[in-house]
Amino acid sequence: MREKVEAALAKIRPMLQADGGDVELVDVTANGIVKVRLTGRCKGCPMSQMTLKSGVERIVLKEVPEAKAVENVAE
């Protein structure tokens, strides 16, 4: 499943990078929770939670049906 999640994140990454941010995969748990870290300008952006849920999570859940949720982890 990790490879599928990486492929989904690769689709989102150019949009985030265009705004000076990025996303990195931290972990995929056994129960389907995808843990990511927003980096760059996304890290401190007030809209980062919306980016995570409306962008990153939406694409990951669409591309990887076995994923249950996407969570941002702090550094």
TrEMBL record:
One of its GO terms (biological process) is iron-sulfur cluster assembly. Coiled coil: none annotated. Residues 5-71 form the NIF system FeS cluster assembly NifU C-terminal domain. GO terms for molecular function: iron ion binding; iron-sulfur cluster binding. InterPro entries: FSCA_dom_sf, NIF_FeS_clus_asmbl_NifU_C. PANTHER family: IRON-SULFUR CLUSTER SCAFFOLD PROTEIN NFU-RELATED (PTHR11178). This is Fe-S cluster biogenesis protein NfuA, 4Fe-4S-binding domain.
